[in-house]
What we know:
343 residues; alpha/beta; nine-stranded parallel sheet; 9 strands; LRR_dom_sf
Amino acid sequence: MPPKPKKGGKKKDNADDPGYLAMRAFKKAYDVANQQHETEALSLNLEPGEGHSCIAKLILTPQTVGVNTHCPLAPAHAKPLCIALSNYPFMRRLCFWGVDLKDEGAQPVAAYVQLHRKLRVLELTDCNLGPAACKYLGEALGDHNPGQELIMLRLDHNRSIGNAGVAALIPRTGGSLCVKDLGLSFCGIEGVAGGTALAEGLMRKPMLTHLRIRGNALGTEGVIQVLNGVKTSTSLFHLDLSDSSTSIETELMKHLLETLELCTWLHEYYLIGNPMGDSVAYTLLRSMRHLAHVIQFEVSDGIDPLLYKQIGDMMTAHRKEWVKKNKKKKKGKKGKAKGKAKK
Length: 343
């Protein structure tokens, strides 16, 4: 969080406020960078809000326009902005939503992220990104760059990413992304090749906890590849495979049941938009009665309403028990720590 100004301080007495000084330096650097690159400064929302002297998040949307014209954000605008941000220490969330950033604009963003390792959330959604942008980000966020604090990377609704983009996200060194929560929904990832790229690359090392790949035409074989990869990713907590252009039937059902039973670390499944029959739903219901680690299992409501309700009720009960159990574990750890301190 950015620092708060001292109580009782006036605007003219901000000489000792690090947040105020950092904001002033950022604004000055941004003006200089735009002059050097001959770009028009964007009318950014830089109001810290009451009780704060600087900002910790910056969100750019199609409504972010130039000062004197209604020219939308273009790839060229990214470089001066990232140059100005490079010496600003308080940024924790940077978002580009629905702007024409393209691979060209993603390159300076990736360079900034590699240097500014305190950033926690990066969202580049619906920005016309492709495999080249994924390559830049993969190199910036690889585990060969220690000290990264980025938790969430959202690349949703960039349909040109495709299978090649997924492969490019994996650093050349053969490592994995230093990201816990990854969003690749509606990114044009398709078939067995797409599922294999996800399974063998992004789930290679135990770091990823949330994988959101909704709206990709993986098909049955692609989803099976993802489920096989899940078995090697012992940190995965949440998996969203909704709208994957498949139905849950014989072969896929077999792999899903294996994953449910074996992967005790995976607690949340989202399978909305993948049709299943009532007999499949009933089989899943029976199996999950003994799988208390499954606390969220979302399916389409096209099945029998009673079965749908029973699955929902079971998940509610599992979740309550899971929360209670994990609270006890936390209390136990605190008790041990206190006991050691007393000795």
